[in-house]
Design a protein that fits this description.
This protein is mainly alpha-helical and 502 residues long. It has one domain. The protein contains 22 helices and 2 strands. Strands 1-2 form a two-stranded antiparallel sheet. Helix 1 packs across helix 16, helix 11 packs across helix 12 and helix 18 packs across helix 19. The longest helix has 34 residues. 57% of the residues are buried.
């Protein structure tokens, strides 16, 4: 309880609270502009956290990540274009309600259900700490190695339907992670005699290039503005807020679905939203209005999207296992801040930092939803921002991002190399998340494997928890089969269960 209160206090200190507000504003813009996406925004902002304290850095980044799904629902309802891949299911009934003159009601329902889902997901994260803390504190390097290896098998979930391409991409990420001096013997690996590669490939230039540059090019190619439609004055928002509590059961159950799927690394909000929508439809006595403008079809995905963030942070914070692009980038932020996800985050002063993540999600969503409800007409106009203004600003942030990690012009070149790689992967339909997963997990796997072998020899593989985790890794490779069963069970095209954000 002391750590929980301490975490809340840290969020409201200066400049942490001011940075969270700044992150909320950026997340606001990103969520409502179709095509950018939360991971892109996080990648762009990652270089700016080097001089921040941990709570300040996570207030900035997590405040941004917490609101993108919420504001992404706005364009899903108004224009039928998801601001985020995780807002796609909201289009079905949200856009139908807008066509019937109920856009305000749909937005009110989406925003309030998102707030409820976010709060429930955040407190699941808080409630899980006393349960997982004794388990995690028993983990040593063999168990951490096995967990990192388990994280690598999530490539099956991050690869869509083409596991072969995903495995190759993850292997490429692992290979790039080995560039530099061997940490044990100081032997040069893949440096090609280049002194500036002795420290390896910078994580920030790689992430920024891989995700931001393809999005900038896509925005430039799209045309004059991000949207080409006008919208009338929005009314009926508070009726949608009332609907959230009138259908309280749907909202809570779909929040639990989002939390449950969020805890499972590799599943993600892209799947949670469709499972929640299917549940809202199947649990309704009268299903005739679904697809034609049923408010329950908005409440389900809205609640599931936001509750998943709190759930997905549980394996990332407790075990250092990123299960989605967003948590992989946040894991990179932990490393930049000198924090080691795992047992270290559940003891001492770091426990307050862990609980501050809970409060950041809650406070950020309360502020965002409140602002949206009060200024929804003005907020919607952001979607008409001219691309001619957006592209130069984003490109400048890309260049700054590549340079800022090590203040090296060489890293700007690295950023563009990864940008070309990301663009090629995007157009050739190769998944980018597995490459990022390999890049982030590579050093963790190598370090823990070396220490485990030095301390225990090959016998470390026979430790009980290691065996359990490795068996789980094998089961994770079967996840594509599970996805096919989900698609068949809920009558959804399998393509809708797979996205770059999954």
């Amino acid at each position: 309880m002391d750590a929980l209160v301490g975490g809340l206090t840290q969020v409201f200190t200066f400049p942490a609270f001011a940075l969270m507000l700044l992150g909320i504003v950026i997340g606001f813009l990103v969520g409502i502009l179709p095509g950018l996406g939360g991971p892109t925004a996080l990648a762009l902002m990652l270089p700016f956290i080097f001089e921040m304290e941990p709570v300040e850095a996570f207030a900035f980044l997590l405040g941004m990540a917490a609101v993108t799904a919420t504001t992404g629902d706005i364009t899903s309802v108004l224009f039928g274009v998801p601001g985020e891949g995780t807002s796609a299911a909201t289009v079905i009934d949200g856009r139908a309600m807008a066509r019937r003159g109920q856009a305000g009601r749909a937005l009110g329902a989406a925003l309030m259900s998102s707030l409820v889902g976010a709060i429930l997901g955040a407190f699941l994260l808080a409630a899980s700490v006393p349960i997982i803390r004794p388990l995690v504190l028993t983990f040593e390097t063999p168990e951490l190695f096995a967990l990192a290896l388990l994280g690598l098998t999530f490539v099956a979930a991050l690869s869509g339907r083409n596991l072969f391409k995903g495995v190759i991409a993850a292997g490429l990420g692992l290979m790039i992670a080995t560039v530099g001096l061997d940490p044990q013997s100081a032997t040069q690996r893949y440096t090609f005699g280049e002194l500036r590669l002795w420290d390896g490939v910078g994580l920030v230039p790689a992430v920024v290039g891989l995700y931001a540059i393809p999005e900038v090019i896509d925005l430039w190619a799209r045309g004059a503005t991000t949207m080409h439609t006008t919208t009338e004055k929005i009314s009926g928002v508070w009726q949608g807020v009332k609907d959230t509590f009138a259908h309280w059961g749907v909202t809570v159950r779909c929040s639990v679905i989002g939390m449950g799927i969020g805890v499972l690394p590799g599943m993600g909000a892209a799947i949670a939203q469709w499972v929640a929508y299917a549940h809202a439809q199947q649990s309704a006595k009268d299903k005739s209005e679904f697809g034609k403008g049923d408010v329950r079809g908005v409440l389900g995905p809205g609640a599931a999207n936001n509750s998943g963030l709190g759930g997905s942070l549980i394996p990332a914070v407790a075990f250092g296992v990123p299960g989605s692009v967003t948590t992989a980038i946040l894991l990179g932020a932990f490393i930049i801040q000198g924090l080691q996800p795992g047992p270290a985050m559940l003891r001492g002063d770091n426990l307050e930092i862990t609980f501050s993540l809970v409060w950041i999600i809650v406070v950020a969503n309360i502020i965002t939803v409140g602002a949206c409800l009060l200024f929804i007409d003005k907020v919607a106009k952001i979607a008409y921002a001219p691309v001619a203004y957006l592209v130069p600003a984003i490109l400048l942030m890309v260049l700054l991002g590549g340079y800022a990690e090590r203040n090296a012009v060489f890293d700007i070149g690295t950023t563009f190399v990864f940008g070309l790689l990301g663009l090629a992967m995007l157009h050739l339909d190769w998944p980018r998340p597995p490459l990022l997963l390999g890049l982030v997990l590579g050093p963790l796997i190598e370090r823990n494997l070396f220490i485990s072998h030095s301390l225990y020899g090959v016998d470390f593989i026979t430790r009980p928890i290691v065996v359990i985790v490795l068996v789980s890794a094998v089961l994770m490779l079967l996840l594509p089969v599970v996805r096919q069963l989900l698609a068949k069970r809920f009558g959804i095209k399998e393509d809708t269960l797979v996205s770059d954000e999954t």
